[in-house]
Write a structure and sequence with these properties.
Elements (H helix, E strand, L loop, with lengths): L1 E11 L8 E8 L2 E6 L4 E7 L4 E4 L1 E3 L7 H4 L11 E6 L14 H12 L3 H7 L8 H8 L7 E4 L1 E2 H9 L1 H4 L6 H17 L3 E5 L19 H14 L3 E5 L15 H15 L3 E4 L9 H14 L4 E5 L5 E5 L10 H6 L4 H8 L2 H9 L14 H8 L3 E4 L13 H7 L4 H10 L6 E5 L9 H8 L4 E2 L16 H12 L8 H6 L3 H6 L16 E4 L5 E2 L3 E3 L8 E3 L2 E2 L1 E6 L2 E5 L2 E2 L11
Helix pairs in contact: 5-7, 7-8, 8-9, 9-10, 15-16
């Protein structure tokens, strides 16, 4: 027998949750054709002795909605073994979009997902679509390193149907609901993988307004669920009210009530439902209550899949991105200088004294990111330095507050010195949701719960504030190999919850498993050498926009549909990825 590729002597983690086993994998015409004792000749034979073979990671919570227009690589996901992504999450996206409606869509995406509006204006090929079917057809003309699926977002849908009434959060009329149902059904039949909505008031446009759909009535969501039932396809994805300490919905519902609503939608529509689940610092047991509701719903034959994250959602500060001094009068005078000159000025004692004594100048703009400098100042004592080797589960005595006290400095002065050190390449992180008690114990329980799945990487979003897009690599290195403050997880569990579990959730039954007949979407990596590098700020977005990236090492090969896209952590130049149609 002759194959395209024959991978020999790999430790195979097949994605099902079964224990690893040693064997061979044969690939032909984009598919896995034999697993186990496959023998024969091949165009390329790979000796994988000592390496782990796993299905390509399936990342179901990304925001590449703009990036797919200007980028065929789709980093940071591509560098971290992801072979399929789902975008259009959190109720924000770019289709349907009425003629001339670009600005409104951009303001929503920039506010909610912290993607520079200048990049979205310049990089997106506006005018190539209006309707959702036209948008997915546009995606079908492009080629990528990995497969791209998308959902129809509630904000875009509501804006398209209701115009200004959507921005004013008016209730949908019966005619509006009929129109929405038609568009949702049309989108699903055209290939949308689902419908997404957000009900947290933390999701605001760049001008500070909650996004359309935040306060949608129960009847509106049930009507959309009925459209999904009529189409016979699609996942209902949601960010519930109360998930980050707030309430929303017409009744000011708790998150528990939201989850009960999702169960009702899943039952009436017959569709799978997935939603964000993190520990809320204001109500630390809320997540357990939600999982109880999920267990009861799934026992009735429903499919509710809470999406969890495998590390605290962290906000990053650095001199090159957001920091607590960025609105100080003296700093603002320096901010327009080339970075190296600005840094040299900041090393001068008199400049340091001036910045530390300055008051903050309020920003001229409003919106979700306007006061991020104030957040950085409040968070500074509880931030942790990010230094190699990175300690992903730190003790409280290593935070900035403790380090400043040990250095006999106040927090502001310590943070100033920290940010300007190492040529201005130092980063610190605030570990937020799921780190309420200063440990990973909550995530430990969430990971082991049989009804959860791993998501929430937000890849493509929060480009200067959060770098959780590297989670597909991190959750293998930390939870499987390196953890010291608690039990490690079996590799088969961590692989299952970011491969087959996610593929099944979205009806992608051709991938997520190493088995004969499945797509040859694979990762081959050295578990002992798999690692994450230093955070780096790149100015490679359209219009010179910046973003934080963190490289990975230890991936020997990544295959998409039987084509080798990465070899020894480098891009091969192949672009086999296509749009996924549900």
């Amino acid at each position: 027998m002759s194959y395209d590729y024959l991978i020999k002597h790999a430790t195979i983690v097949d994605g099902t949750g079964a224990a690893p086993f040693e064997g061979n994998i044969a690939i032909q015409d984009g598919l896995i054709v034999d697993v186990g004792n496959a023998t024969g000749s091949a165009k390329e034979t790979i000796n994988a002795q000592g390496a782990t073979a796993a299905p390509g990671w399936v990342d179901v919570h990304t925001h590449y909605d703009g990036q797919v227009s200007w980028d065929d690589q789709l980093d940071p996901s591509f560098s971290h073994g992801v072979t399929s992504v789902v975008m259009g999450n959190c109720g924000v996206g770019f289709a349907p979009c009425p003629p001339g409606g670009e600005r409104g869509m951009i303001e929503l995406m920039e506010g909610v997902e912290d993607i520079p509006g200048t990049a979205l204006y310049e990089g997106i090929e506006w005018g190539r679509w209006e309707t959702f079917p036209e948008y997915i057809d546009y995606l079908g003309t492009r080629q990528y390193t990995l497969d791209v699926g998308t959902q129809i977002p509630h904000s875009a849908l509501r804006n398209y149907v209701m115009g200004e009434r959507a921005l004013n959060h008016e209730d949908a009329t019966s005619a509006d609901l009929v129109h929405m149902q038609q568009i949702v059904e049309e989108a699903l039949r055209a290939g949308a993988l689902g419908f997404s909505t957000s009900r947290t008031i933390g999701h605001r446009s760049i001008v500070g307004e909650p996004i359309p759909g935040t306060f949608a009535e129960k009847s509106e969501l049930l009507a959309i669920g009925l459209a999904m039932k009529n189409a016979g396809r699609g996942v209902f994805q949601a960010v519930p009210a109360g998930v980050v300490g707030d309430i929303a919905g017409p009744e000011h519902w708790t998150t528990e009530q939201e989850v009960e609503l999702f169960a009702e939608i899943a039952e009436s529509s017959g569709r799978n439902c997935t939603f964000t689940l993190v520990q809320n610092s204001n109500r630390p047991d809320q997540w357990r209550n939600c999982l109880d509701i999920v267990e009861q719903a799934n026992a009735r034959g429903l499919m509710l899949r809470p999406q969890i994250t495998t590390r605290p959602i962290g906000l990053v500060t650095s001199l090159r991105t957001y920091h607590m001094f960025q609105r100080r009068e003296t700093f603002l005078k320096l901010a327009q200088l080339p970075f190296e000159r600005m840094l040299a000025e900041m090393h001068k004692p008199e400049v340091k004294a001036a910045i530390l004594s300055d008051a903050d100048i309020p920003p001229t703009q409003t919106g979700a990111m306007a006061n991020v400098f104030g957040l950085m100042a409040m968070a500074a004592p509880n931030m942790f330095p990010i230094d190699l080797p990175i300690n992903y589960e730190p003790q409280s005595d290593s935070n900035i507050g403790a380090l400043a006290m040990a250095a006999n400095q106040d927090v502001a002065e310590f943070m100033y010195d920290f940010l300007i050190s190492n040529q201005g390449n130092r980063f610190a992180i605030l570990l937020g949701a799921n780190f309420v008690d200063g440990s990973f114990s909550v995530m430990e329980e969430m990971i082991q719960h049989p009804d959860t799945t791993i998501g929430l990487s937000d890849a493509g979003a929060h480009v200067n504030l959060i770098f959780d897009a590297v989670n597909p690599t991190y959750q293998i290195t930390h939870w499987v190999r390196d953890r010291t403050r608690g039990p490690r997880m079996p590799i088969e569990l961590m692989v299952h919850k970011q491969t087959l579990r996610n593929a099944q959730l979205f009806g992608l039954h051709d991938r997520g498993q190493i088995a004969a007949g499945k797509r040859a979407d694979l990762n081959l990596f050295d578990l002992q050498k798999l690692d994450l590098g230093e955070l780096q700020v790149h100015h490679d977005l359209p219009a010179g926009g910046s973003r934080i990236l963190q490289p990975a090492s230890g991936y020997l090969n990544t295959f998409v549909h039987g084509v080798k896209t990465r070899q020894h952590d480098h891009d091969t130049g192949a672009r086999p990825g296509r749009v996924i149609r549900g």
